């Protein structure tokens, strides 16, 4: 939603900086490419950009390979995260200092398929041709996963 808010600002104000709101390209690499996938799949992002580039990543796997993306599973993960922070209620979470949420994370760090922003997974949106209909350039860096082979 923060990325869509930034794109809305661009649509409203970019002309004042010499930009063209009818010629906006979103681009991302790795997790940024996942954001590109989600923006393309979200009906709320329709009309906010006209071109997209996703490099070395994306979010195109079917939900059978990523069940944690489903809302009930993400909610369970969020509850576990809250407990790990010492909070058992939303009120207690809101009372925690911001520093408690920085560092190694541990919270939900992936997409969540839910009715408002992502009513269907990016995989489903693309498979059904329901994604935002803009040109998409995708690619990968050569040997980018070579560092992972030792693992």
UniProtKB/TrEMBL annotation:
<dbReference type="GO" id="GO:0016787">
    <property type="term" value="F:hydrolase activity"/>
</dbReference>
<feature type="domain" description="Carboxylesterase type B">
    <location>
        <begin position="1"/>
        <end position="147"/>
    </location>
</feature>
<dbReference type="Pfam" id="PF00135">
    <property type="entry name" value="COesterase"/>
</dbReference>
<keyword id="KW-0378">Hydrolase</keyword>
<dbReference type="InterPro" id="IPR029058">
    <property type="entry name" value="AB_hydrolase_fold"/>
</dbReference>
<dbReference type="InterPro" id="IPR002018">
    <property type="entry name" value="CarbesteraseB"/>
</dbReference>
<dbReference type="InterPro" id="IPR050309">
    <property type="entry name" value="Type-B_Carboxylest/Lipase"/>
</dbReference>
<protein>
    <recommendedName>
        <fullName>Carboxylic ester hydrolase</fullName>
        <ecNumber>3.1.1.-</ecNumber>
    </recommendedName>
</protein>
<comment type="similarity">
    <text>Belongs to the type-B carboxylesterase/lipase family.</text>
</comment>
<dbReference type="InterPro" id="IPR019826">
    <property type="entry name" value="Carboxylesterase_B_AS"/>
</dbReference>
